[in-house]
Amino acid sequence: MNVITKSQASTKYSFSLVTRLRKLQQKSLEKQSFPISLLLFTHTHLIIPSIFAFRGTTIIIFFRHPQGEASFIIMARPTWVFLQLFTIFAFLHLGIAVSTENPLRQQELDRIAELPGQNFEVKFGHYSGYITVNEESGRALFYWFFEATEDSASKPLVLWLNGGPGCSSIAYGEAEEIGPFHINADGKPVYLNPYSWNEVANVLFLDSPAGVGFSYSNTSSDLMNNGDKRTAEDSLAFLLKWFERFPQFKGRDFYITGESYGGHYVPQLSQAIVRNNLLFKEKSINLKGYMVGNALFDDHHDHVGVFEFLWSTGLISDQTYKQLNLLCANQSFVHSSASCDEILEVADKEIGNIDHYSIFTPPCSEASSNRLRKRMHMIGRVGERYDPCTEKHSVAYFNLPEVQQALHVDPKFAPSKWETCSYLINGNWKDSAGSVLDIYRELIQAGLRIWVFSGDTDAVLPITSTRYSVDALKLPVIGSWRPWYDGGQVGGWIQEYEGVTLVSVRGAGHEVPLHQPKLALQLIKSFLAGNSLSPLQLHSDT
């Protein structure tokens, strides 16, 4: 058993205590004294007894913590039991942590047996839990991981990140986009998504930063001080520890994917990994590339693209179009001026009651109004099973106590009400890069495979924004603009540059896998394989 201490003196003390406990256990066994079973679950937090049980002359005391475990069985006479317990409490009070976390053991503790409302069997394992990314403040990020449906040992690992900032990757990415478990209209039961990306890869969903979804911090001020920089740092810390918990995936081909404000998260985390690999080769992550959809790239070019899309689709007036370009084109997407917000409200009234995230599909009646103005603060919202109210279903399901228990959510840190997006996080975002184009240039030079895709009915971060931002990279064109096909039908259009591939997805909104799940699965297959999307094979009519 490993004993982690804060000083040489406490190290000596801790080893002596462990030795004493072991001798005590052996001595009491020889004397056949009254038993006490003591389980110590320790990691980095204060340890307190959670269960006391008395069975005749047997006293059972349990100490629980979700991050690790150690165990002693002490055989003792009741007359001096509490003296020994006092010694243990003193040991813990000194800040000495007994750590025996076995990565594979913790991995198994994170395994999910079955979800409430799941009336079918699955042929893949899945896991969820916390990983502490900052010991001092107690920041811990929540994840949900799915093995590939077949041949998991040889498939790549894909991380999915939603944006916001402040929105849950589990709420969106897992429960309504690329995950295997989607939620029915009544919040229960779940059903199996036939277009889940774990058909082609092992898929990891991360709620980041702390304060989003089930991720938490023991330091309340953390929730008021999130930003791009710390999110990338914490996400890197998460991955390094996650690979320790799942060592079978070390060295596996690794890709990062996401959408919306994930247009910041994905390249920023990729940059952090590439730089960390150069500094610490023994902790390197085998990052091969990344892919982002309807992504925030560059505040200026993205704004110009949004306003052009709204005007060219006939959603706003000529005058409002001119004012938007005048007052907002050079503003931040996250921290905009009062004058910009005012003209956005004018544009919102002109657009009317439609879903800005997918302009040709019906809106959810309870959440459809005033969305253009909100998109400045919440960047992040038709397929065979399109439902405009999917967020409501997630809220109903993930607030069920039995669901949280199945997902290993610690009730001490669970939010009083789980939400798809945190307006507290979003409204207090501290740093947001005005552009990530320089990061793209750095990562192109690093040799990463980079694809950007865009649903063509999104008015929040539309295809026009993506095209303007990619054009600003000034990359040589290596493949002409052409349509790509799925089942003989146009799936979208593709343009290949030196270092970046741009793909549009026909008939999809802001969340491409929600609106066009089959096309999205074709997209990830081609990306992972490094193949261009299929051109049409023309056949004769005769």
Report on this model:
It holds the Pfam family Peptidase_S10. The strands form four sheets. Strands 7, 8, 9, 12, 13, 14, 15, 16, 17, 18 and 19 form an eleven-stranded mixed β-sheet that branches. A four-stranded mixed β-sheet has the order 3-4-2-5. The chain has 17 helices and 19 strands. Residues 1-83, 90-100, 367-386 and 538-542 have low confidence and may be disordered. The protein is α/β, with parallel strands linked by helices. Helix 5 (228-245) crosses helix 6 (262-279), helix 7 runs antiparallel to helix 8 (318-328) and helix 7 crosses helix 15.
Question: Can you lay out the helices and strands and say which pair or pack?
Answer:
Blueprint: E1 2-4, H1 8-31, E2 35-40, E3 49-55, E4 58-63, E5 70-75, H2 78-93, E6 97-99, H3 103-109, E7 126-134, E8 139-146, E9 157-161, H4 170-177, E10 181-183, E11 190-192, E12 202-207, E13 216-217, H5 228-245, E14 254-259, H6 262-279, E15 287-293, H7 299-312, H8 318-328, H9 338-351, H10 371-375, H11 390-398, H12 401-406, H13 423-427, H14 437-445, E16 449-455, H15 463-471, E17 477-486, E18 489-497, E19 501-505, H16 512-515, H17 517-529
Parallel strand pairs: 2-4, 9-12, 9-14, 14-15, 15-16, 16-19
Antiparallel strand pairs: 1-6, 2-5, 3-4, 7-8, 8-12, 8-13, 10-11, 17-18, 18-19
Q: Could you give me the name of the CATH homologous superfamily of the largest domain?
A: Alpha/Beta hydrolase fold, catalytic domain
What is the beta-strand fraction?
Answer: 15-25%
Helix/strand/pairing category? alpha/beta
Let me know the number of strands: 19
- Describe the largest sheet: 11 strands, mixed
Helix coverage percent: 25-40%
The best one-word shape is globular
**Which regions are unreliable across 5 or more consecutive residues at pLDDT < 50?**
1-83, 90-100, 367-386, 538-542
Q: What is the count of distinct domains?
A: 3
What's the assembly state of these chains? single chain
Report Rg.
26 Å
Number of alpha- plus pi-helical segments: 17
Mean pLDDT equals 81
The first-level CATH class name of the largest domain: Alpha Beta
If you consult CATH, what is the topology of the largest domain? Rossmann fold
User: Could you tell me how far the N terminus lies from the C terminus, measured between alpha carbons in angstroms?
Assistant: 76 Å
Identify the CATH architecture of the largest domain: 3-Layer(aba) Sandwich
